[in-house]
Amino acid sequence: MQITNQDLLEWIIKPTLQALGCHQATAAQNLLLAVANQRIKPKHLNRGLGIYHIDALTHQRVWDKYLAFRPELASKIRGLASQHAFLANPHLELTTNLRYATAIAWLLYVVHPCELRLDAAIA
Predict the structure, then answer these.
(1) pTM of this prediction?
(2) pLDDT tens-digit map of 25-39
(3) Is 35 helix (H, G, I), strand (E, B) or coil?
(4) Is residue 67 within 8 Å of 115, Cβ to Cβ?
(5) Residue 32's closest CA among 113, 112, 108, 119?
(6) Nearest in space to 75 (alpha carbons), one of 83, 66, 67
(7) In this structure, are residues 58 and 44 in contact, taking their beta carbons and an 8 Å threshold?
(8) Of 6, 11, 16, which Cα lies nearest the Cα of 81?
(9) If 44 and its partner were Cys, which of 31, 73, 116, 118 is the partner (CB 3.0–4.6 Å)?
(10) How much of the chain exceeds pLDDT 90, in percent?
């Protein structure tokens, strides 16, 4: 099965950004679509999971270094995850759950990219 760019945008990206209250909708939509299509290849996301290529370490850092201190946003994002599967293997959500993966990618690229960089400053 193949998902078209229009389907990804209409059924995954737009509703996810709306659920998270994204006010930069057009820019975020275009960026996430480009990343999903690998037109943008950030060096720290080359071999990650799912359509956004987010690796497990980055995923863990998003939760530990960012969402842990923003419970309301964390709750919204956790609400996009599968109830039981997330607890058993949270990184699998990046591959199997497009809305959850989109929310995590949005955090990495749009909200606070400097805070979430994977360099020595965050490690």
Answers:
(1) 0.83
(2) 888 899 899 888 876
(3) helix
(4) no
(5) 108
(6) 67
(7) yes
(8) 16
(9) 118
(10) 53
